[in-house]
Each structure stands twice: as structure tokens, then as C-alpha cells.
């Protein structure tokens, strides 16, 4: 099967196949994706740009500020590239920007995914350590250490994104250049092997392992807070949970349809083909829409709507990124106990 992939489609769905859908279905999916990309670009660049400006230049650097600043940078970089994908959709899957930008555009999308989930994992581990080892955290949990961890996160994210830069390609005649994953079309077995490896690796390292760690950390936090009878529903805690849930809701369907795509490539079942052709672009759009959600969660979670607009943006972000997440009371209690020994 020819491997010509649109930016918004899973890695092996061909645009020719997608265009074989009933025209009303194809047009509806196409229009939906285009609207989502435009909205994500407008909201993502402004919202994340505002977070970067306030957190990066107006606020004192705390550990939480470093974490949320990194999330905003990852989302901002991705949304900044969205006009390329929007143009690709407007031109009905003609890529006029050359092979290098085809590779870079795809790599940036998954750089955003890996950087976001790795940062969320680090946040969860940080919260867990602060609850379980409050004295150690009080002495060693510093913005400098957070910056070092953030650099490691970006290095790992770049490493896992290299696959998409290596295998992405642009080809076709002058009137219709496609941007697609070239897993080696001349050897279908090799193509299928690389497709499987890419999907499985992305799911394991970009979803399953991080969410296992995150779930474990927050389970420990809830148990510890309950045992110590500390409040666990303060605003920063709610924001972290909201960010995690939004990531899960936006990205999990994408991973499901990636596996359906692999199954279709192995069986070429017509029902799977229809599911991938329709669901693939929709779940991809949903995944990328995640990049514009977080700034609005910071503003509105746990606040009265009217009060929000009576408060300065800087004040809103300062409260959202505050260190008071339920651990402070444990830190104080543990420190006092250690002084009595």
C-alpha cells in the first residue's frame, strides 16, 4: 500500500484512501480538522505566550514556575508551527515547504507530546517526594535543580522525537507534494516492522510508563495526605489533576487509533480502514488541541469566573503556580518534629 500521510493523519493512512470516503464525510472531517488547527493556533500562541511572558519574565523562579514554564514552552513551539499544517490542509494535502520543514514539523509535534508528558511525570514525582520526604525536599528542592531536570526532560524529548525527523519525507509531482512517513515502501515487511516499532515505542514511553508513574505518585500522595489528615484539594493540586486529565483525554484516543492503524496494515480489514480514515484525523486534531488548553486551566480552575477578571494576570498565575499544594503543612510539621528530637 502506498504510504502517503497527511500531517494530521496516523502514520500510514494515505490521503488517496481518505479521499475515497463519501465526499460529505471527507469534507466534514477535513473542515473539522482545519477549524481545530486554527483555533489551537490562535489560542495556543496567545495563551502560552502569555504564560511564558509572565512566568519567564515577571515572576520569581520557583520550582513550580519552572515546571509550568516548560509546559508552556513545549506547547508554544508546537502551536507556532501550526500555520504549516493549516496551509497543508487548505491546499488539500499539498506540501509546498520542502523536505526539511516536513521533517521538522512532524518532529516538533511529537517533541511537544514527549516534553509535555515527561514534564507532567516530573511534576508528579516532585509532588510525591515533597509529601513523603518533606525535610529532604525543603533542603534540596531548588529552582536550580528544577532547571537541570528540565534540561534532561528536553534532551529525552528530542531523542524520542528524532524518529519522526528521520523517517518523515516529502515527495510527489510538482502539483501534489505529500508530507508522509517513509518507512521503506519497497519492502512492506520492513515498513510494517518500523510502523509497529514507532507506534509501540510512542505508546510505552509517551503514555503507558509516564501515566503508570503519575498514577502511582498521586496514589501515594492521597494516602499520605489522608493518613496525616491534610487537605488535598487546594487549587494548585486541582490544576495539576486538571492538566493531567486534559492530556489523557486528548492523547489516549490518538494512541488507540495508532494501534488500529497497525491492525489495519496487517489485516487490511475494510471496517478498520473506515475507522482509521475517519477517526484518525479527528483524534489527531484532539491530541494537538491539548496544546492550547493549559493556560485556561491555570486561570479558571478553582476560581469564580467574575473574580478571575478582576484579578491581574500575574496574580492569577502566581496563585496557580504557588508551592502550597498540601505538602506545606506536612513540611512544617515534620520540621518541627525533627527539631524536638
Automatic annotation (TrEMBL):
SUPFAM superfamilies: Family A G protein-coupled receptor-like (SSF81321). It comes from the Eukaryota. Gene3D superfamilies: Rhodopsin 7-helix transmembrane proteins (1.20.1070.10). The chain crosses the membrane at residues 34-55, 67-95, 107-125, 146-167, 203-225, 237-258, 278-301. It is found in: Membrane. Its main location: membrane. Keywords: Disulfide bond, G-protein coupled receptor, Membrane, Receptor, Transducer, Transmembrane, Transmembrane helix. Residues 47-298 form the G-protein coupled receptors family 1 profile domain. It holds the Pfam family 7tm_1. InterPro entries: Formyl_rcpt-rel, GPCR_Rhodpsn, GPCR_Rhodpsn_7TM. GO terms for molecular function: complement receptor activity; G protein-coupled receptor activity. GO terms for biological process: inflammatory response; phospholipase C-activating G protein-coupled receptor signaling pathway; positive regulation of cytosolic calcium ion concentration. GO terms for cellular component: plasma membrane. This is Chemokine-like receptor 1. It comes from Pelobates cultripes.
Amino acid at each position: 500500500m502506498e504510504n502517503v500521510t497527511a500531517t494530521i493523519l496516523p502514520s500510514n493512512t494515505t490521503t488517496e484512501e481518505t479521499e475515497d470516503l463519501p465526499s460529505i464525510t471527507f469534507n466534514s472531517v477535513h473542515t473539522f480538522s482545519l477549524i481545530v488547527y486554527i483555533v489551537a493556533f490562535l489560542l495556543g500562541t496567545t495563551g502560552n505566550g502569555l504564560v511564558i511572558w509572565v512566568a519567564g519574565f515577571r515572576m520569581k523562579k520557583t520550582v513550580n514556575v519552572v515546571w509550568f514554564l516548560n509546559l508552556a514552552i513545549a506547547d508554544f513551539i508546537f502551536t507556532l508551527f501550526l500555520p504549516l499544517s493549516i496551509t497543508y490542509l487548505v491546499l488539500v494535502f499539498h506540501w509546498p515547504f520542502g523536505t526539511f520543514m516536513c521533517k521538522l514539523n512532524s518532529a516538533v509535534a511529537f517533541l511537544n507530546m514527549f516534553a509535555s508528558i515527561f514534564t507532567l511525570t516530573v511534576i508528579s514525582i516532585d509532588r510525591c517526594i515533597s509529601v513523603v520526604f518533606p525535610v529532604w525536599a525543603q533542603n534540596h528542592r531548588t529552582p536550580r535543580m528544577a532547571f537541570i531536570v528540565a534540561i534532561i526532560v528536553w534532551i529525552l524529548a528530542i531523542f524520542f522525537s528524532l524518529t519522526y525527523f528521520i523517517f518523515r519525507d516529502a515527495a510527489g509531482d510538482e502539483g501534489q507534494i505529500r508530507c508522509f512517513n517513509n518507512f521503506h515502501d519497497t519492502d512492506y515487511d520492513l515498513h510494517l516492522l518500523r510502523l509497529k516499532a514507532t507506534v509501540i515505542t510512542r505508546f510505552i514511553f509517551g503514555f503507558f510508563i509516564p501515566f503508570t508513574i503519575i498514577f502511582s505518585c498521586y496514589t501515594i500522595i492521597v494516602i499520605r495526605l489522608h493518613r496525616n489528615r491534610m487537605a488535598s484539594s487546594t487549587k494548585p493540586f486541582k490544576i495539576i489533576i486538571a492538566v493531567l486529565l486534559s492530556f489523557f483525554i486528548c492523547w489516549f484516543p490518538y494512541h488507540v487509533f495508532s494501534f488500529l492503524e497497525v491492525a489495519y496494515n496487517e489485516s487490511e480489514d475494510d471496517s478498520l480502514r473506515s475507522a482509521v480514515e475517519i477517526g484518525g484525523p479527528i483524534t489527531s486534531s484532539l491530541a494537538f488541541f491539548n496544546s492550547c488548553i493549559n493556560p485556561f486551566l491555570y486561570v479558571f480552575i478553582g476560581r469564580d469566573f467574575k473574580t478571575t477578571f478582576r484579578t491581574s494576570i500575574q496574580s492569577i498565575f502566581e496563585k496557580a503556580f504557588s508551592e502550597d499544594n498540601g505538602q506545606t503543612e506536612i513540611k512544617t510539621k515534620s520540621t518541627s518534629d525533627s527539631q524536638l528530637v
